Amino acid sequence: MSATTHPVDFDPFSREWFDDPSEMYAQLRVHAPCFHSEKYDFYAFSRWDDCVAVHRDTDNFTSTHGLTYEMLSDPDFDLGPNRSMIMMDPPEHNRYRKLVSRRFTPMAMGRYEGLIRTQITKYLDPLMDRDEFDLVQDFSGPFPVEIICAILGVPEADWQMIRHQTDAMLHREEGQSGSTEAQAAAAINQAVYFLDFVKDKRAHPGDDITSALIEARVETADDELVSLTDDEIAGFCSLLGAAGSETVTKAVANAAVLFHRNPGEWKKLRDDPSKITGAVEEVLRYWAPSQYQGRLSVNETEWHGVTVKAGKPVFIVTGAANHDEREFGPTADVFDIDREQNLALSLGHGIHTCLGAALARMECAVAIDEIRRRWPDYTVDESRCERVQMSNVAGYSSVPISV
User: Fold this and answer.
1) What are the residues whose beta carbons fall under 8 Å from the beta carbon of 367, sequence distance 6 or more?
2) 188 phi and psi angles, rounded to 5 deg
3) Peptide linkage before 376 cis (omega within 30 of 0)
4) pLDDT, tens digit, for every residue of 86-129?
5) SS (HEC) of 48-92
6) Could you tell me if 306 and 43 are in contact, meaning their C-beta atoms sit under 8 angstroms apart?
7) Residue-wise pLDDT tens digits, 295-331
8) Dihedral class, residue 395 (left if φ above 0, else alpha if ψ from -120 to 50, else beta)
9) ∠ CA 237-110-209 to the nearest 5 degrees?
10) What is the mean pLDDT of residues 336-360?
11) Which three-class secondary structure state does DSSP give residue 249?
């Protein structure tokens, strides 16, 4: 059997996926846990155990051909010289991960809590005199990129440019499976920017992560210690800049809408701010900012009676897995900040767990806490909310708030 015979579809370039894929995901988990797209010739996994297994199986599912459909479906796609470690498999990935992971532990990220709170309050304080504002445009959109850029040592004048470049790179129109010339140009411009940035940072080091990476040494397969190239460091910076400007932006906006829809959960948090950690995890589980991750199948394998052919794009649909009742029980579709098991796949898994996961969680926690203190009562005009149309990233581009 090469494909499911049940009339269920998963189209990550469709209006349904952009707007709300929850029903699509439910059908996948039940009827097509290993889904084959006849239209795009990719495979998709939607159950928790399968997504975890594919994440861990680097022998059969490789990251080295890229992450998005246009990369994975084109055997001649050029990843470029500044490919980041998210596009590496072990043992190469292990060496680079070891080099940079110590900079992103929860303890290491703790030193940035003051920076995080400063950037967040810089945007929230001016909103105190307003009855209405857009949570994304006025707050969750601009602040996260400023934090990651400050940590990297990017000049302040360029912070928002990085965000707008990233948005342009990820944007997709309905039915658009590849990138346009404009989107490709944005990706090239960002790659060139970070390469020039690293060259300048090498000449003018500072107290930042980029300077630390320049000074670092990585162990090669021959047990030699070598410096990272400018291309390699630029790849790290581009990855962190993009992830840092998208994940938190989407998570904070998602949180505002979810708490608006679930006032009982908001009351719990208002009454007991110690629940913020659990609230952040539940927001990430319920509406994951990154809905799926791409791999290329290396060998032919079989899952649930479906043959996954070698050399095909594969999507690990973690947005669906986070609602799998096999893992989260019969209340998987309930938003519950007191959920006992709420550590989801939203920030990656295994060797590809997001480097900035601790930073992202801290930013979300501080942002939600500051909103809670300022506006214990607020409403969202969902009729005017707008969702992004992006490759694998989901969330809101506009969330009108009344206070």
Assistant:
1) 120, 139, 140, 143, 248, 252, 255
2) -65, -45
3) no
4) 888 888 887 777 777 777 777 778 888 999 999 999 999 999 99
5) HHHHHHHHHCCCCEECCCCCCHHHHCCCCCCCCCCCCHHHCCCCH
6) yes
7) 999 999 999 999 999 999 999 999 999 999 999 999 9
8) left
9) 25
10) 82
11) helix
User: Distances from the Cα of 181 to the Cαs of 145, 176, 292, 300, 391, in angstroms?
Assistant: 25, 13, 24, 34, 15
Rounded to the nearest angstrom, the gap between the alpha carbon of residue 183 and the centroid of all alpha carbons in its chain is 18
Tell me the two tokens of residue 246. Answer: 């998208």
Q: Is 392 left (phi over 0), alpha (psi -120 to 50) or beta?
A: left
Task: Give the domains, in start order, of the chain with CATH numbers.
Answer: 15-402 (1.10.630.10)
Relative to beta strand 379-380, strand 34-36 is: unpaired
**Residues paired with 313 in a beta bridge:** 296
Distance CA 305, CA 165 (A): 42
Does 105 or 334 have the greater pLDDT score? Answer: 334
CA dist 226 and 213 (Å) reads 12
Query: Contact at 8 Å (CB) between 90 and 58?
Result: yes
Q: Give the helix ranges, DSSP H, for 125-229.
A: 135, 143-152, 159-170, 181-203, 209-215
In order of 136, 198, 226, 289, the CA distances from 149 in angstroms are 19, 13, 26, 20
